[in-house]
Design goal:
With about 550 residues, the chain is α/β, with parallel strands linked by helices. The protein contains 23 helices and 15 strands. The strands form five sheets. The protein has a five-stranded mixed β-sheet. The chain has a four-stranded mixed β-sheet with strand order 6-9-5-10. Helix 12 packs parallel to helix 21 and helix 20 runs antiparallel to helix 22. It comes from Cohnella soli.
């Protein structure tokens, strides 16, 4: 299905409306957005007696002098090598007047760990979670497990300013209460397809512009050197997500059906999703796709292969660009790196980026926490007088000052106690305005000795985000059938195929995919689609302009 060919009604919006639309581009908040906008005036605690915060704009000097103590659990997306008591942690404790009992868990194991913790009934004082997109957390919220934070947002304006008001409004329950601190993000995080430009030039392969040209290039690479992996990536829908958009779909999205543009269907019902999986299967059969793709559970294996010269093309989140460039300069100093443009797909769909939500996970505070204001004091400090410390670290250890600008040091020049793996686990939340800062990025690239690639990275970023695939379903659109039984029927009939089975299992082809979808429809999926479309009259594609959201 070609999204580019669909002529949908679009309306111009001001920035505030753009922010709201971005929030509405995923189903992350489905079923939890409150319709009552009134602010709560009650105590921030809901399950245990707590002192209500004052309405002052910042903590008093006596409050600042009080040591904040709390337990803290969060996932990490890189190596889980955090070691307690390091030099950075000691400096943070002193600067913020805090003492934390920290528990860091690899993101792949985090949800299982959370379930174990919930079953024990002994919640950490502060912990990361996916938020009210998951009905489990909504239920826990209603049972009084989490702290109500309305009054803290008023007491600490810097915390409230982390996210746009539109996002806070979406997080309110039916009483206007908020229990979740969102980790605001840039909704545009395109997946780049990096390639060994020197290898392509050596084999006289022009830069591909279509999926067909890419496949031909991969075949030529394999023929020339069987030891090189032609294509590798994090996983099917994220690392190779840009290639997925060339087949006309966005993962996790609801989009118009091919037969009826006024009827929204979940992405797994689109022909492009099946075609993409079958294409990946064919690449695997031909030896053009990494044999460990979707098999090796360490997502970084693909990145390592590319950085060490073992792979020709890598699909990965664009945010890893500086790390990849720096590592390649060490392991393959003569290599030339390029970034493929968005590719046109086999059915005429233009490749691009997937539009995400304005937040990715966030923080809950336990309602049983003894001193919740202690955490909010620390969080407020990290956004105000401690903002530079939280963002840049320690001068001479994690950054240097060049012409008055703070420039992060390359990781290979940073002591172990001050590397990202020791700092990121201790970071809380940062304002959305910091999520795309081209000036800071340019300084970072130049400081790391990779400034020559900056303009290409920026150019390709806008090339990918110029054509985006978003979720047409609004977060306020709910289905009672989905709430009641959606997770079960998805797990029973679809999850094995969608999580990579259709790519890896030779017995699962297009007929098997279609049969699984039919079973899902018969088990309640058809009712979910009916309810979603009935509850959402508008089927307009979400509209947002990245340059308006984050001005250059």
């Amino acid at each position: 299905m070609s999204i580019a060919k669909q002529k949908q009604q679009r309306t111009n919006r001001k920035l505030s409306a753009l922010l709201l639309t971005a929030v509405m581009t995923t189903g992350m908040l489905a079923g939890c957005a409150g319709k009552n906008d009134k602010e709560s005036t009650g105590s921030p605690g809901s399950a245990s007696p707590q002192q209500s915060p004052t309405s002052s704009a910042s903590a008093s000097s006596s409050e600042k002098a009080t040591l904040a103590e709390f337990s803290y659990m969060r996932p990490v997306w890189g190596p889980a090598t955090f070691a307690e008591g390091g030099a950075y942690e000691q400096q943070l404790n002193k600067a913020a007047n805090v003492k934390m009992k920290v528990q860091i868990v690899p993101v792949g194991e985090y949800d299982a760990k959370l379930n174990t913790v919930f079953a024990s009934g002994d919640l950490p004082d502060v912990f990361w979670a996916s938020g009210p997109a998951d009905y489990k957390f909504v239920d826990m919220q209603k049972q009084g497990a989490f702290l109500k934070i309305n009054d803290y947002l008023e007491k600490y304006p810097a915390i409230k300013a982390m996210a746009p008001q539109a996002l806070w409004d979406q997080l309110k329950d039916e009483n206007g209460d908020i229990f979740f601190l969102p980790n605001a993000i840039n909704p545009f995080n395109p997946m780049f397809n990096f390639y060994r430009k020197d290898l392509f030039e050596k084999l006289s392969i022009p830069e591909p512009t279509t999926i067909a040209e890419l496949e031909a290039a991969l075949e030529k690479i394999k023929t020339s050197d069987p030891k090189i992996i032609p294509l590798t990536g994090q996983d099917s829908f994220w690392g190779l997500g840009a290639l997925g958009t060339s087949f006309g779909f966005a993962k996790e999205g609801w989009m118009p059906s091919k037969e009826d543009p006024n009827k929204l269907v979940p992405y797994w019902m689109l022909d492009g999703v099946v075609d993409f999986n079958m294409w990946l299967k064919n690449l695997r059969h031909k030896g053009l796709l990494d044999s460990e793709y979707l098999v090796n559970k360490d997502w970084s294996h693909s990145k390592t292969k590319f950085e060490t010269g073992k792979a020709a093309v890598l699909g990965i989140n664009w945010a890893y660009t500086p790390e990849i460039l720096q590592n390649m300069k060490k392991s393959a100093p003569d290599a030339k790196l390029g970034i493929l443009p968005p590719l046109n797909g086999p059915n005429g769909d233009a490749g691009g980026a997937q539009l995400f939500s304005l937040y990715d996970r966030g923080i809950y505070v336990s309602s049983k926490m003894k001193d919740p204001d202690g955490f909010f004091r620390v969080l407020n400090w990290s956004l105000t007088e401690g903002s530079d410390f939280s963002r840049y670290g320690v001068e001479g250890k994690t950054y240097k000052v060049v012409d008055g600008e703070k420039v992060p040091l390359p990781q290979d020049q940073v002591e172990n106690d001050f590397k990202t793996t020791q700092i990121e686990p201790l970071q809380f939340l940062r304002p959305i305005q910091e999520k795309l800062d081209w000036t800071a990025l340019k300084s970072q690239y130049e400081g790391a000795g990779i400034g020559d690639m900056f303009e290409e990275v920026k150019s390709k970023y806008y090339a990918y985000t110029a054509n985006y695939y978003g979720n047409y379903r609004l977060p306020s659109t709910v289905s009672t059938t989905e709430q009641k039984d959606g997770a079960r029927i998805y797990t029973d009939y679809l999850q094995p195929l969608i999580d990579g089975g259709a790519t890896l299992n030779d017995k699962w082809n297009k007929p098997e995919w279609e049969a699984a979808v039919k079973k899902w429809l018969d088990a309640g999926g058809a009712k979910i689609i009916e309810e979603i479309n009935a509850n959402q009259p508008s089927k307009v594609k979400p509209e947002i302009n990245i340059k308006e959201l984050f001005p250059e």
